[in-house]
Amino acid sequence: MPDDPQSAERPDALARYARQSRFAPLGEAGQRRLLSSTVFLCGCGALGTVLANTLVRAGVGRLRIVDRDFVETTNLQRQVLFDEDDVAAQLPKSVAAAAKLRRVNSTVDIEAIVADVDSGNVEGFAAGADVMLDGTDNFETRFLLNDVAVKHGIPWVYGGCLGAEGQTMTILPGETPCLRCLIPEPPPPGVTPTCDTAGILAPIINVIASIEALEAIKILAGQRDATSRTLQVFDLWENRCRQLDISKLRGEEDCPCCGKHEYDWLAGERASQSTVLCGRNSVQIAPPPGWGLSLEELARKLSGVGSVMRNPFLLRLQVAPYQVTVFADGRAIISGTDDPAAAKTIYARYVGS
User: Fold this and answer.
1) What's the pLDDT tens digit per position in 338-353?
2) Under 8 Å between Cβ of 159 and 134
3) Whole-number percent of the chain with pLDDT over 90
4) What does pTM read for this prediction?
5) Residue 132 burial (10 A CB sphere; 0-12, 13-18, 19+)
6) Are 52 and 58 contacting, i.e. CB atoms less than 8 angstroms apart?
7) Are residues 241 and 108 in the same domain?
8) Are both 65 and 213 inside the same structural domain?
9) From CA 48, how far away is CA 300, in angstroms rounded?
């Protein structure tokens, strides 16, 4: 194992966490376990920034942040690690978050990855993780995390918010129901509200992410018995809080994932090539097979098409009425439409088929 910058063997390693470790159920032993733990955070938007901020301040040893998106002005209402300078620099969220977090706690090993989590890479991102956390905004990725968790026995915490409502659930493979015990199939497109239609208030984000973070701390500190075994549901506008008993949902045979061990999301059998991004009037397009064009080459290709901006992480083309943001792996976010077919046409026209 590489040198750990905040090894619990260092005499000063625990000093900055004194107020936290004095909480008896955590204690010094639990804090030492935190210092040697690894967390995979999937998504660094609203939930993800609160999760990352909380866990880095709590003293996790390593935090691997994977996010596919870049910072925009509309993020600042609820995504606590970003500011207007990040918007102006057009930085990917994982990169901007990591820069802030390293100034908060330089002893934590923070790995920032700009990527879309999919069936081909998710197991690599989860490798070595003691817990996985849901900072994403779509069920396709959550079902991927659920498959990985059950297959490899990695605990994970699900969380989701909309409007002033939110819910969270802790999944301990082999002990509790998994996500597909609760939600066997993702809701069809257009059936459920989105943050684009229903909006989102920042306080519910902070509540759900804080619960997720504390559930992770319990797991990492070796206090699994203290984790919640319920689905926790909050409506802050209506002042309601519910804890739903989900223990009877765990079916050894009925659940396709933890019962039958059919990891169809992880196998790539359920993946889509385009994703409508919540509240963005934007669509993400996956790269074609064999993508090999560099951002520098693409910038030269598009120089006469419209306004082009490039930094080490992405290229942005402004061509009215669209904004095309291309990442180094060939992924693109097409802004100005929520129609996947139209987005694919724009991608083919300016990036490649």
Assistant:
1) 888 888 888 888 887 5
2) yes
3) 70
4) 0.86
5) buried
6) no
7) yes
8) yes
9) 35
